[in-house]
C-alpha cells in the first residue's frame, strides 16, 4: 500500500489555512521547516499549513508529493542527550503544491490570500543570485529573487498598497546575511522592471527579510533500505526523508514574528537573534572539528566521523581540539560547552556514515576559514595549540601526491589511492614541493616555510607566526617516520605549547 490519505496515520493538519508559501520541496525543507510546523501544529501554537512550490522547471518531487496526497514520512535517527533516537512520523503540514512554470496564475492567487504570512525558501546557495530577466506577468520568472519580486508586487497591487499585508521572508539558504542579500537582489530586479516608488516604500517598511542560520543533517531517502522501511512502516513512501534529531534555527526576526511563528513555544531549538554568534559557534565547534579530525583521522586509518569518535586516541585528540577551539571563541563558557555537547552527540550518531574523504574536499579553504582564526587567536597570546598545529601538518601530508589528474591530486593511504580536491594554486605548489622533498633538494622545514608563506593560499604569510613552521615540520617528520598514530599520541594531553 502506498502512503496516502487512505493509510491510517496521525492527525492531519492539511485542513489548516495556508500560512506559508515554501519555495522548494526537497529533503531539507521537508525534514526541517515542515517538520517544525507539524510540531507547532501538534501543540496548537501555529495552526497553519504549507503550500510547496517547485523551485526549478524540471523538478521531480512535487508530482510525487501530489501522488501521496502531500504526505511523507520524516525519520529521525541518531543521538540526543546521550540517548539513541530512532523515530518516525507521517508529516501532514503540506496542504498543496504549485508548479509555477505551468501554474503561474495559481502562484498569484496564493499570494492574494489574507492567510499568507511567510515565504520560506531553500533554493541552495546558487538560488540567491541576481539574474537579469524579463517579466510580462503571464509566466514565472526563472530565478527565485525574480519570482519573489513579482509575487510581492502582485500582493502589493492586489491589496492596493495596504501596509498591513506585508510578509516575513525566511530564506534557509546557507549564505551569510541571506535575508539582507535576498532583499538587495529583489530590489535590483524590481528596479529592472520599473516598479513604483510606492512599491519600494511598501517593500522596505511592510516586509521583513530575516537573516537565518539552519542546522540539521538531513540525508534524505534511505536508498538501499526500501524493503526494510516498507516492512517497518507498513506502507510504501517514495519521499521518506531521514535526518538527525539535532536541529537549530537561528532567526533575526522582530517581536511580531515571534508571535506569528512561535517555534519556541513548541520546545524547538530556535534562537531569536544572535545569528552571527550561532554561525560562529557552528563554524568553530562543528565545522572546525570536522576539519581538525579529517586528515588526522583518515591517515590514522579511520574512514568516518564515527570511526574517529570510537577510536580512543583519536577521540582524545578531538576532545582536546574542542577545548583549544573553545578557548579561542569569545563567547560564554556555558554556551560553548552546551553546543559542544550537542556536537559530540551528532558525531556519535550510529546511523550517519559521514565519510572523512567527503569532508576532506577543499580542506585548505576549510582550514583557512574554520581553524586558522582560532590558531591566530592563540598565537597572539604566545601559544600554538598542538591539536591545531598537528591538523595543519596532517593536512600537508594528506595532500602528499603520488600523481595528478585533471580532477586533482591523487594521494595514498596504506597502498590505496584516494582523490583530493583543491584549487590549482594549492595543487601546483604541493606537487612541486613534495617532489623537491623526495628528491632531496629541500628540507621538510624549508618546504613548510614555502607553503606557509604562500599568501595566495592563506591570505597572509603564516610563516610570520613565530614557531609555527618548526612545529609543523616536526609533526610531519613524526607522521612520515613513525606514523599518524604516534603523532596523535604525542599530542594527546600535551595541550598548548608556549612559543
Question: How are the elements arranged and paired?
Answer:
Layout: E1 18-23, H1 27-31, H2 33-42, E2 49-53, H3 61-67, E3 72-80, E4 83-91, E5 94-98, H4 104-112, E6 118-121, H5 144-158, E7 168-171, H6 178-192, H7 197-206, E8 208-209, E9 212-215, E10 218-220, H8 226-233, E11 241-243, E12 248-251, H9 255-260, E13 270-272, H10 275-299, H11 305-309, H12 312-327, H13 333-347, H14 356-359, H15 363-380, E14 383-385, H16 386-398, E15 401-404, E16 409-413, E17 416-419, H17 424-438, H18 444-452, H19 455-458, H20 468-482, H21 484-491, E18 496-498
Parallel strand pairs: 1-2, 1-6, 2-5, 3-11, 6-7, 7-8, 12-13
Antiparallel strand pairs: 3-4, 9-12, 10-11, 14-18, 15-16, 16-17
Mean pLDDT: 94
Termini Cα gap: 67 Å
Which percent band covers the strand fraction? 15-25%
Which geometry do the CA atoms define?
A: globular
Number of helices: 21
The CATH superfamily of the largest domain turns out to be NAD(P)-binding Rossmann-like Domain
Biggest beta-sheet profile = 6 strands, parallel
CATH architecture of the largest domain, by name, is: 3-Layer(aba) Sandwich
What class do helices, strands and sheet pairing give?
alpha/beta
Overall number of strands: 18
| Strand order in the largest sheet | 5-2-1-6-7-8
Give the helix proportion (percent range): 40-55%
Integer tally of domains: 2
Estimated radius of gyration: 25 Å
CATH topology of the largest domain: Rossmann fold
- Poorly predicted runs are 495-499
